[in-house]
Amino acid sequence: MPLHEVGLAGDHAASAPAAAPGLSERAAHVLLTYTPLGTLVRAVARLRLSVHFKLLAAFLLVALLVAAMGAMSLETISTMSKQSEAMHHAHQRVTSARQAQHALAMQMNYTAMALILRDEATIGSILRENNRLNSALAQVDDSAPPEERDVIQRIRTAQGEVMATVADVANFVRDGKIEEAMQLQLRTGYPLFQQVEGLVEQVVRIEEEGMARQREATIRANRRAFYFMGGFVLASFLLALLLGFVISWSFILPVRRAERVLGRIAKGDFSTTVTVDNRDEFGALAARMNNMSAELRRLYEEEREAARQLEALNSQLARASQAKSEFLANMSHELRTPMNAILGFTEMILDDIYGEVSPEVRGPIQDVRTCGQQLLRLINDVLDLSKIEAGRMELSLTDYSVQEVVETARTSLRSLAEEKGLKFTANVQPDIPLAFGDGKRITQCLTNLVGNALKFTKQGGVEIGARLEGDMVVYSVTDTGIGIPGDQLDHIFGEFRQVDSSISREFGGTGLGLSITKTFVELHGGRIWVESEPGRGSTFRFAIPLRIAQATEVV
Amino acid sequence: MSQKKILLVEDNEFNRKIVHDLLARHPYDLMEAHDGETGVEAARREKPNLIIMDVQLPKMSGLDATRQIRAEPEIAKIPIIVVTSFALSGDDKKAMDAGASAYLAKPYSPRQLLEAIKKWLGDA
Fold first, then answer.
1. Which end of chain A, N or C, is less surrounded by CB atoms within 10 Å?
2. Model-level pTM greater than 0.80?
3. d(CA B73, nearest CA chain A) in Å
4. Quick one: which of A361, A359, A326, A329 has its CA closest to A346?
């Protein structure tokens, strides 16, 4: 039953502290699994009381046990002291009884001596011994049981008779009637002595028996106290152990389970919940943990679902992008193939391959060629833009010559400048070393700028410049055209931008050239900027690293 | 001395006509193929002095046809001018990797093509 599994020995690796179960751990496991202790632990856990209260109650109980033990010790000590006192008392009574016996013996002795010595001192000694006997009897008589008191009374009576006889004997002795004295002593005195002696002997026996009883009672009482105390101490010890075990395990078990479940959660398994018997703070903690686990699971599943959707979307996008790329390649081919024929035939006609062309026809054919070239540039621009937008624009990196870039741009546009009657010059720093980058694209950038400059210039000229500034090659195109108003300077590199829509009507063009140029410059890690004064002309400049790092190859 | 043979592999009728008209007044023997497969077959059969190969061709692409020709020892040495569409950067590199002797980007100028032909065949 996993709900009540104890989770000690051989626990999961998640619970690091319990990795190597010790002897006490195994013992606890056995106790919890095979004895009613497990049930007790669960019962304590199920108590609807706070941990604070449970701990307090347990400690209080242990403290009460200690206090009870102390009280019992005091009680036992007091009992033993009473027993000892009683013993002492009994001993004294025995001593007194013996003193009485002794005094009697001495009395008999002195009486016999008086018959021989016949002096007053010995007679006085008889009286003294009589007094000792009486005082010893008085001590025994004090708090004596009734039957003993009876005996003592009889002793006193007999002793009275003895003393009367002794007085008579003494008088005979003083009168010198020794014979009468001896007769009286033998007939009356001696039997009376024997009677008293027997009675005193009886008292001594009674007192000695009393002392023996008292001794036995004391031994029994001591033994009883010993067993009772021992039992109580043992019971207290076991009860304290039990309390400690039950209380601590009623807290340890939920913590262990929680720790195990947290371990699983930490490993990303959100399907487990922690079940504890506790209805205290640990129970509340487990409930919170289960809430947390459920919430994590929900979030995790949401996230997984989102990731799945995103992945699906991604592959859809990738397919779309692939389709777009293929479409671009196809369109490029499909558009260029007829353009190739149009421009090819036009060139061959103008080269007189089909016979000499009359001056009247040559003009319109040249127009066809100009328009065809324009259309080709447009197609190229649109394709370039599509590639840039699709993120598939790549640079083709090789060594190239800056001089050649400028010369190619100049050659391709020289005829346009000549047609418009513009001055068209180039000023290239002669010692620029071999550059590294996409020479074709840089040529395209320069051609774009020069084409624009020629387009917007009606008189004056256009100059191309190139020089080395540190690691950068700075290309410049300066014209004497219409210029650009200051508030437009920031926008002209955006897509489809021209300074004024009326300009497109006058000068034509789509406004794609500058945007594409900017993209290529930036792909090279360079920058482009413009200075202009309306009515006086503009200078476009772009700076590109002489040798670009390979890392910027793919964008 | 017999005329030098040029094999033009091109599927577009008008572009074939351009080359045809361009070479009409020059002493070259022009043969045509309309797709990559027949282009390779014609090369095996005729062993031309120069091949002008379009890239986008039916059945077998110009690049595959070029690789095929370079793989066959008897015709491997024939100069091949590959005409690319310049659709994506790197087409020129692909052409050279496939074994092209030179490449031209479409749209090409007929004058450029003629210069290239003369360069590879020598003035005939």
1. N
2. no
3. 32
4. A361
